[in-house]
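Protocol step 4 of 5: obtain the predicted structure for the target chain.
Materials: sequence only (see below). No template structures provided, no constraints applied. The aim of this step is simply to have a reference model before the mutagenesis design in step 5. Sequence pasted as it appears in the construct record:
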Amino acid sequence: MFLDLKNRKALVVGGGEEALRKVRLLLKTQALIEVVATELHPELTDMSVWGSIYWLGHGFHEDQLDGAALVFVASDDETNERVSAAARARSIPVNVVDEPELSTAITPAIVDRDPLVIAIGSEGAAPILAQGVRARVESMLPPQLGAYVKRAESLRERVAEHVPFGNRRRAFWTKFFFGPLKDIFISGNGDFNAELDKLIADEAHPAQGRVSLVGAGPGDPELMTLKAQRRLQEADVIVYDRLVGPGILEYARRDATRIAVGKTPHQPSPKQADINTILIREAKAGKLVVRLKGGDPYVFGRGGEEQAVLEAEGIAVDVVPGITAALGCAASIGLTVTHRGQNRSFTLLTGAGEDGVVEHDWAALARPGNAFAIYMGVGNAGHIAARLIEAGIDTAVPVTVVENGTLANERSFVTSIARLGEAMLENNVAGPAIIYIGLAKAAVSADVLSFPGRANELQRAAS
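Step 4 output (structure tokens):
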């Protein structure tokens, strides 16, 4: 929280080096600074002579808090406690240097690009770390950035007059601060005013929006790409699936419209045609739309279908790939999907068809040396196992199941193709889950404890 100290009293108790640092901080504001100390640091003395501060040359007493908006204390222990108690009694924010237990306000490390100010705090736990972070941020921001922010302030009325309110104006300011215009201003190379006029003209009339098909990854927000995070920050509208991991939407702009279109098995859910209608409607309204999908948009995410529909309507589409669930979940439990000498290929399959029943070339899949992952196969796991056994697969082939992969509630187990249907019921697998057939970690002894009597069969399958 930033306090407005314009023409308000800020009291500093102490006259040494630490008090000087607080005064330097306050001098960046328009506060009326009073310093209580019997002796002053030479620099504070100069400030007093020049009228930058008002010096009260005696000890602290409570009346000095009258009218104060903020208090800094950098004195001896007894005085620190007295001032803190008196300020608390009056509900005045007080910061006692290096004594967070006596403070109701913490001074952050500050990156100052006036009027842009970045405050970095650790709640008093690690001030040196906060200072280190400040140094890194300082190196990222050019000194001229403050002047650029002031230029933006001077343009607000002009932009408000010419650029429509909402996503078009937001798009203007995004391009102003993060596009090439800023580089022209800071470097001094190029005609800034001409480029500014062009940017205002480009954003003055609402244009058709665009749609980004964005893969959110297998669930863990940290597995999203940087580009996916950036798209979420840019979006006016986010149309998201049920399988998008918890926490992913925390990366989105807070004021973005969010539309849930997730499909829940055996329950009424939005049809694909309905989702297409939403995407077309929002994009044609000039909005930046993110179609957010779990995993990767092109892997059982109907990304290709949606792209074709949008492009047929003349709507621009870009695709942001994501880590697909089969690879992310396997990596999360340390399961290699290709291993020299064991399997020559790895196939991705869907376990659900349009009518709920899925059919594949079971004979080809059942051949020795094949390994494959099945998406959306929880409900049809028994059918899949039966069809593979009919096709001649070795009944001891290992199967690894990963439920809620990469999330905090992730769990996995190993069974055989012969017991796949039973194992899914025994473990109450509700999904989302990936079923890996022909793959198991080298050490399965811990996993097979869930299946008494199957240890020998599974050890043989793993080998």
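Step 4 remarks: The domain at 9-107 is CATH 3.40.50.720 (Rossmann fold). Residues 443-463 have pLDDT under 50 and may be disordered.
Proceed to step 5.
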